[in-house]
Please model this.
Amino acid sequence: MKNFITHLPKVELHLHIEGSLEPELMFELAKRNKVDIPFDTPEEVRKAYEFDDLQSFLDIYYKGANVLIHEQDFFDLTWAYMLRCQEDNVVHSEIFFDPQTHTERGIAFDTVINGISKALDKANKELNISSQLIICFLRHLDEAAAFETLQQALPYKDKIIAVGLDSSEQGHPPEKFARVFAKAIEEGFLTVAHAGEEGPAQNIWDALDMLKTSRIDHGVRCVEDPHLVETLAEQQIPLTVCPLSNIKLKVFKDMQQHNIVSLLRSGVCVTVNSDDPAYFGGYMNDNFYALADTHELTKQEIAQFSINAINASFIAPVAKEDLISAVRSYTASH
Ligand code: ADE
Ligand code: ZN
Model:
């Protein structure tokens, strides 16, 4: 099964590029940019990655991003992730970045997006890995700040497919950003949102109704509302689920308790993703291995996660068909 997972063509739909900052690169950038970090070694950093909940993670995660200053830093960060995609046979990735984490520190929006985009272009040419970019608004900041960020994104419409919503879910429901999302849709962006990670099932309904999202990031708390689960399955509304993240942030007690497999068997379009792999102990393959280790999954079910991700992606319809054929023939030959 491990071998089957390793070589299975995969699509990632939930990855925060700032969450792929490995401690080694954090140290290198801290030195290069003369930024102080409160650790002596990368091992020490890894040891500090014990979280009680989403907020305890976010507090450390935003500090880690302080080492990212120049365009080259954003390029190096993104290129390192694309090399990990190659290793894990991820053929397409839809990547979040948080402009406000950087613009709040005085880093220009252009610096961030240019560094990321150049690495994505290089990966497309040299590694044959395609990608899309999604800007996320930080939901703990106010509506005006989100509008300002949307404004900064307008000149980059050709590089950004969608807007999203991340950061602290508790106390910051989707309705806070309904007007920003309406404007983003008017400007031609697709929409996604984190909902039902730590927040209630109602946030999922509200993200769909008020933010008109194409898919829901996380969404695992949908099970608290059986009518919602039925609707997600009937309308094939995708959930971008992140198993290792959910364990690290104590959304579930352990992987055995994770509900992704039962959602798959209920017909929900669930996908497997890594969220913030440098902080949560693994990239795409590690997430698949962890599920296969703790749940009795067939090869067809594992392949279904990949097919779901292709269907849920923003890839053009013809390319989707080619990828699905590739997954089906890979599965048939194993
Ligand atoms: N930002 C980075 N990772 C996140 C997560 N899992 N939930 C909300 N915001 C995030
Ligand atoms: Zn996330």
